[in-house]
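dude i think i finally got it to work??
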Amino acid sequence: MHETDAGESTVVVLDGSAAVIGTMEKLAAHGRPATPHLAFSVVLFDAAGATLLQRRAATKYHFAGRWSNTCCSHPRPGEPLRVAAQRRVAEELNIRCGPLDVRGGFWYRAEDPGSEFTEHEYDVVLVGRVRALPTPNPEEVSEVALRPPEQVLADVRTDGQAYTPWLAMTLRTALGPAQPIAVDVPL
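look at this
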């Protein structure tokens, strides 16, 4: 199912302390001003420690064509984060990932200069393993690459416009020690 299909069009709305306060249509939540809501980012590493990056398809509604972490999206209302993350990895990259560990979370806000959309999300970072480069869904992902995370962070510092604004925060969270998350949702 494509991310904009029925069932994928509702996000979990949060207040400033990351408490769940309701739901909202996804594109409306990403308008200007954006409504704070729950998101997740998956970071998969191979056996050598390289991270699987994806380049977002040119048809994505925001931050199109930019390199990002393995997968990022929103859980459905009531959907456990790990279930949502595994579902979206399968839908975007055509792979089944194994167990995912929650590493932490962070707030961020970013306006997309190429669209009218804004991110204002509490992003929960989940990490796992990948064995090989996937064959992604071209409606979601235009290409994939395995790269050392330290090189990705250096590249983001020198050419930030080629990457999503949440990528550096996501990688730093994935590489750091596990931290409790601020939102009380099913994992």
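The domain at 10-175 is CATH 3.90.79.10 (Nucleoside Triphosphate Pyrophosphohydrolase).
im so relieved honestly
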